[in-house]
Amino acid sequence: MMHLVLLLSCIGLIYASAPPDLTVSNERYTGKVVGGQNAHPNMWRYQASLQYDNWNTGHYAHICGGSLVSPLYVMTAAHCILSLEAKFYRVVLGEYNLYKYEGTEQTRAVSKIIIHPGWTGDLTIGNDIALLRLASEVYGNGYITLADLPYPGQTLPNGFTCYITGWGLLATGGSAPDILQEAPIPVVEHSVCASPEWWGSAAKKSMICAGGDGNTSGCQGDSGGPLSCFTDGYWRVHGVVSYGPAVNCNMYTKPTVFTRVSFFLEWLYSQMV
User: What GO terms in the biological process aspect are recorded for it (predicted)?
Assistant: First the structure.
């Protein structure tokens, strides 16, 4: 089986209502998340940047994405947790350009890390999901919102268009963007993704596959970030970026794999107390 790669960089709240016009030409989606473009400002208001201070010096670097699921909790991938010491992490909400202060940001220290008990470090087993409890609540400022989540057990049909967002590499081995990226990405239903030509047994029913067209995918630095899908009248976070192919982020028949949020709702709500 092809090697997997963690899509991880190593170094009053309101709700969305109607979908924006995100129709763009193919030319504008060439070469950037991989295959995307600069995100529409103030669109993905639940998107978080998880940042890590490797040497405990006060200098933080983006390592993963996340989604604000309550005023005190951010959902991310379990494999984004490099240390169980909460003091090494911070979360930035309302972020757009990582290297420019724009007055929209709220930065919070992390007070507690909660990793799914089924996480073993093996991506093919799954359970790649975690919660970060913030040191203080995030407040609504017009640039930050809570993520809506899917219904328990909800799945999406093959070809359903969702959006992947993040500050991950623009290509395998390429550069990381300053500005949040977005790209439309089609869902690949489980029966297809679990076939031998695709991810085979590495794709579990607790996961969502999207992409695999050789054009659009997540890449290193997008881990933990949302797969956003417009369902039932709202943008809902259906997935958490988990893994992709090690050889090339946007390989044909090797889509980005996400932890399926609807599979873990009971656990999520039980922890956010």
Answer: proteolysis
DSSP string, 98-166: TTS--S--EEEEEEEEEE-TT--S-TTT----EEEEESS-----SS-BPPB---TT----TT-EEEEEE
Q: Using CA atoms in the order 74, 96, 244, 32, what is the torsion angle rounded to 10 degrees?
A: 170
b/e sequence 239-268, b meaning 16+ C-beta within 10 Å: bbbbbbbeebbbbebbbbbbbbbbbbbebb
The CATH number that domain 4-11+28-40+147-262 falls under is: 2.40.10.10
The residue type at 69: V
Q: List residues with catalytic annotation.
A: 79, 128, 223
Fold (CATH) for 47-146+266-271: Thrombin, subunit H (2.40.10)
Domain with CATH 2.40.10.10 in the chain: 4-11+28-40+147-262, 47-146+266-271
pLDDT tens for 176-219 read 999 999 999 999 999 999 999 999 999 999 999 999 999 999 99
